[in-house]
Amino acid sequence: MAGGYELRSVQNERLTVSPYLALVLIHSIQFGLGYLSMSIKPVQFAGHDAWISVLLTGIGFHIIIWMIYQLLNRNRSDIIEIHRQFFGKWVGGALNFLFIVYFLINSSYQLRLFIEVIQVWLFPELETWALALVLLLLIYYIVSSGFRVILGICTLSLAQHTLIFSMLFTAPFFHFANLKPVLDHSLNDLVLAAKEMTFPYMGVEILLFCYTFIKNPEKSQKWAQIGNAITMFFYLLVIFFSILLFKYEQLAKEIWPEFTKYKFVHMPFIERFDFIGATCLIFGLFPISCLFLWASSRTMKITFGTRQLTALAIFILLVFIVVCCIPNRKTIESVQMGLSKVGLVIVYVYIPCMYLTDLVRWKARRA
Amino acid sequence: MKRSFLIILACCLLLTGCVKQQILDRVNLFIVCAFDKAVREQIEFTMAATKYRSKQPGAVSNRLLSNVGETSVGIKGLMDLQLSRPINTGKVSVILFGKDLAEKGISKQLDVVSRDAQASQVMYLAIVNGNAKELLHANFSSDEEKGMYLFNLLDSNVKNGSVPRQNLHEFEYAYLGKGLDPFLPLLQLQGEHVKISGLALFKNDKHVASLNEKEMFIFKLLYRNLRQGTIEADSGNGSRLAMKIVRSKVRYKVMKGIQGPRISINLSIKGEVIDAMQNKSPDQNLQQIRRLFEKDLTKNGMNLIHVFKTEKIDPLGLGDLVRSHTRGWKEEEWLRQYPQTNVALDVNVEVVETGIQK
Predict the structure, then answer these.
(1) Nearest CA in chain B to A184
(2) Which residues in chain B are closer than 8 Å to A271, comparing Cβ atoms?
(3) Residue B47: how many other CB atoms lie within 10 Å
(4) Rounded to 5 degrees, what are φ and ψ at B27?
């Protein structure tokens, strides 16, 4: 254990990415499919003030990213090693294993959500397993090519933001009076709404795992923070869009309010714009699923010594089984509830605790 | 390994052809449909399926199908039995409701429509003064498909005419939202022609009152800013004056009163007088004309607001307006206050031009 903190801190340079790509990494893993239904729950608590909660959570995540970087910079290693250093082989290994489970369930959830959207909006008769099989084969192909390729896919996924212009079709129906009166809700409501907003911002925990794959990782903090700020900007757009376009009571009835915007698009040469919108959601799915599966297979390799590709193949099979076992909207919702609770624990309990533990260790060692 | 992987990927690509196809020529698209009240809680659903005749370009006609049943989905199943191709709802642009059904409430029918992933959010809804099925059966458009004809009729009158815009999304917004009530255009069959005869006002999802054409336009003036339309007023000596609106702006203000809020509406209109110049001294006359219009609009506008208050309906969304100015707004409290709320209307007319002659 002595001098453990210079362990495998540097990867082979061929495998690393430039620091500025932390922006793409953070933004694309946060901005998944969740934004389609993100606005419903915060609006139930904070009504038209929900945008304040989006800001609050966003700022909270800036602090979380700062904590992650403090923790990792001091140890010059990724969380897999830090777990072992802090808690020993067994407890550390168990923690790593818990992360693997969380990542697998999360990527299954994202995959199932995508398939659900396709089933509801485009092809109701499509079987879940068929689409899951095709997508997972592609994901295996991407992940097996390594971290740099995954980040390439993440960069490509930024193309989905061009669809933001379809919001212009809904602009004639905006009601700006819906934003007033500002701050009509108590702080308690805002905090409850901010709690609901945590799940869409989740994903920053991936930094703990791919820290060593960033060249000069200390320099990448700025970019990671910018990535989070960009996510915050897009989430603000989404929430403003929902508040301006819908009445609170209408939102309570919708499942994917953000997706409904495609139902306003009326163009002479294309009648059903939602086909394009639904297909582009794949850009939201791939970064998340690929990064999570990559992180879990890598954790498996380091903690338990399995070959990464073998672990990946097993995990893909597991995800496939889990996806097929989620039959309907109700189950998807309950999986989401569970995941968002886990997310809350990771963000507001686990990461601050790790940060404090590390701080104490650091101080003790210096004294 | 790599080769087998490529084969699997190629298979995935080729198997996409196995998804159920919907080729435009092989489905029955319909643009307009109608709901009517039938006996005993049942509804009658009428669909105008499009019929294309080959070798005659532009010759599109309709085949009308009607069925009575409990739910619209069940009726659609019955209709499939009468049609050679499956029905697809992706192109519905206008939905008509018979007056009897509208008086009973249309939320059940609308729920089905807004649940449909294929239905457009910007389709038009309209109430038929009478029976919607009869209207669809009338031969009002000889060379155009009936659905397209009705859609264009509503669309052009919303964009350039006196009909305030209310599509499926806005109807739902006003119906579900607190502090405002929906309204829909009212269609009427006159001989062989369809005309928009006014506005049907709703309380929740039930049709309770109607406005005629003139009231509808005044309502539109109070509802949104406009850039088109004409208004008429009495000149006092028996003749009528007409003015073309160049631009109208409506501003709402909410002030705190002793009991409940006070609302003041400020309507300023810039117009072009096109039919009033009998007098030789235009300058003095213009002032007079201005006054006449202001007086006329104020009177009619206040009448409208009075009607809304006595019927306890709120198509202008005054409740929503007050909500946006009040912290901790409660709907029940507002509904109690509403009939006594002090609403003031101030109309300001400015004659900017008098056509191409003095």
Answers:
(1) B327
(2) 90-91
(3) 26
(4) -125, 160
Residues B275, B290: Cα–Cα separation, whole Å: 13
CATH H superfamily, domain B212-358:
Nutrient germinant receptor protein C, domain 3 (3.30.300.210)
A144 at interface of B, judged by CB pairs closer than 8 A: no
Q: Tell me what the pLDDT averaged over chain A comes to.
A: 90
B-chain residues within 8 Å CB-CB of A178?
A: 324
Interval B298-322 mean pLDDT: 92
B242: β partners:
B232, B275
In chain A the domains, ranked by start, together with CATH numbers, are: 12-348 (1.20.1740.10)
Interface contact A121, partner B, CB < 8 A:
yes
pLDDT at B130 over 70: yes
- Please give the angle made by the CA atoms of A298, A313 and A25, to the nearest 5 degrees: 45
> Where, residue-wise, is CATH 3.30.300.210 in chain B?
212-358
Q: Are residues B177 and A248, on separate chains, in Cβ contact within 8 Å?
A: yes
Task: State whether B177 and A120 contact (CB < 8 Å).
Answer: no
Does the ipTM exceed 0.90?
A: no
Longest CA pairwise span in chain A (Å): 73
Measured CA to CA, the distance from residue A251 to residue B305 in angstroms comes to 30
A216: left (phi over 0), alpha (psi -120 to 50) or beta: left
Whether the CB of B258 is below 8 Å from some CB of chain A: the reply is no
| Cα distances (angstroms) measured from residue A46 to each of A185, A253, B175 | 6, 17, 22
DSSP A1-66: -TTGGGTT-S--GGG-B-TTHHHHHHHHHHSSSGGGTTTHHHHHHHGGGHHHHHHHHHHHHHHHHH
Q: What is the pLDDT of residues A138-156, one digit of tens each?
A: 999 999 999 999 999 999 9
Q: How many C-beta atoms lie closer than 10 Å to residue B252's C-beta?
A: 19
Pick from A329-338, B115-124, B284-293: least confident: B284-293
User: Is B118 touching A (CB cutoff 8 A)?
Assistant: yes
Q: Do B117 and A173 touch (CB under 8 A)?
A: no
pLDDT given for residue B129 in this prediction: 92
All residues of chain B having their beta carbon less than 8 Å from the beta carbon of residue A248 are: 177
Q: Which residues of A touch B119 (CB under 8 A)?
A: 263
Q: B121 touching A, CB under 8 A?
A: yes
Judge whether A281 and A154 are in contact, CB under 8 Å: no
* 3 state DSSP class of B350: strand
B179 neighbourhood in chain A, CB within 8 Å: none
The residues, ordered by sequence, that sit 6+ positions from A216 with a Cβ below 8 Å of its Cβ are: A19
Question: Could you tell me the two tokens for B158?
Answer: 């919303």
The residues, any chain, with a CB within 8 Å of residue A331's CB and separated by 6 or more, are none
> Does the beta carbon of B20 lie under 8 angstroms from any beta carbon of chain A?
yes
A271 in contact with B, Cβ within 8 Å: yes
What stretch of H or E contains B24? Answer: none
